[in-house]
Amino acid sequence: TENDSLNLALCYNNRGIIHTYINEFQQAERFLKQALAINRSSKNLKSIASNLNNLCLFEGNIEEQLEWINEAIIINKHLNATWSLGENYNNLGKLYYYAHKYPQAIAALEKAYQLALNIGAKGVICDNYEYSALVYSAIGDYRTAYEKQTSLYALSKEIQSENKLRTVEQRIAQEKLLAQQQKEELQQQEYKIRLLRRNIVTILIGGPAWDGRLILPSTPDFKILIRRQNLEIWRKGTWNPTGSLPLLFLTPALGNMKKLW
Questions:
Q1: DSSP string of the chain, one letter each residue
Q2: Mean of the per-residue pLDDT values for the chain?
Q3: What's the rounded Cα separation, in Å, for the pair 226 and 245?
Q4: Rounded distance, CA 15 to CA 87, Å?
Q5: CB 101 within 8 A of CB 138
Q6: What is the pLDDT of residues 27-59, one digit of tens each?
Q7: Cα–Cα distance between 164 and 17 in angstroms, integer?
Q8: Residue 140: CB atoms within 10 Å
Q9: CA distance 37 to 41
Q10: What is the pLDDT of residues 88-134, one digit of tens each?
Q11: Is pLDDT larger for residue 34 or for residue 211?
Q12: Is the whole model's pTM more than 0.90, yes or no?
């Protein structure tokens, strides 16, 4: 089915990215191209643009990669995908850096920076600082390269702090949720206990119509349960809903009624 094909394309894309991160660029390109072929047949524009962008994450056939990244830019402009456009222009600048076309690289990176800045895309800005430092270092502008590196360090540290804060907030939220769940479970248990007590009272007292002929189980477990319930009620100073009478248990073997304290 079409969904199966799209899922397969996503798997190919993700595997291509993994190979990119471990510097296995030929394998990365092979899987990314397989993903691209599937998405082109499905006319999935967003995924097509993503595959094209990912094919430009490393140095390869620069002329072919420039075609890919410019196609991705056209698609993302059509989709009004600003974040993706920022990534595209970052990669375009990096491709120009690989090709030693430094003025074009600076222009593309400046475009990427403005797009990312407008939407607060800090991750894209970090990449922009990194690539810009490489370009300015290559042209001998070490002061600007140093400034870009300093900005990269500061922003990376800020993102790291935000991630730590987000982790703390998530942990606090999880603890609150767990406490609420435990409270609800406790309330449910208390409700079951109250219900059990009412049932025992109904059985043992029998109500106004009870004629004394009710025969109740006299097993040890049942007796222990009743004793525990009565002891708890007696210690708390609260009695059963019927009023002043304690709970009574009928022992069939003796045929009489005994108070259970």
A1: -HHHHHHHHHHHHHHHHHHHHTT-HHHHHHHHHHHHHHHHHHT-HHHHHHHHHHTTSS-S-HHHHHHHHHHHHHHHHHHT-HHHHHHHHHHHHHHHHHTT-HHHHHHHHHHHHHHHHHHT-HHHHHHHHHHHHHHHHHTT-HHHHHHHHHHHHHHHHHHHHHHHHHHHHHHHHHHHHHHHHHHHHHHHHHHHHHHHHHHHHHHHH--TT--S-------HHHHHHHHHHHHHHHHHT---TT-SPPPEEEETTTTEEEE--
A2: 79
A3: 14
A4: 19
A5: no
A6: 999 999 999 999 998 888 999 999 999 999 999
A7: 26
A8: 9
A9: 6
A10: 999 999 999 999 999 999 999 999 999 999 999 998 999 999 999 99
A11: 34
A12: no
Cβ-contact 113, 128 below 8 angstroms:
yes
Residues constituting the chain? 261
Phi, psi for 122 (deg, rounded to 5): -65, -35
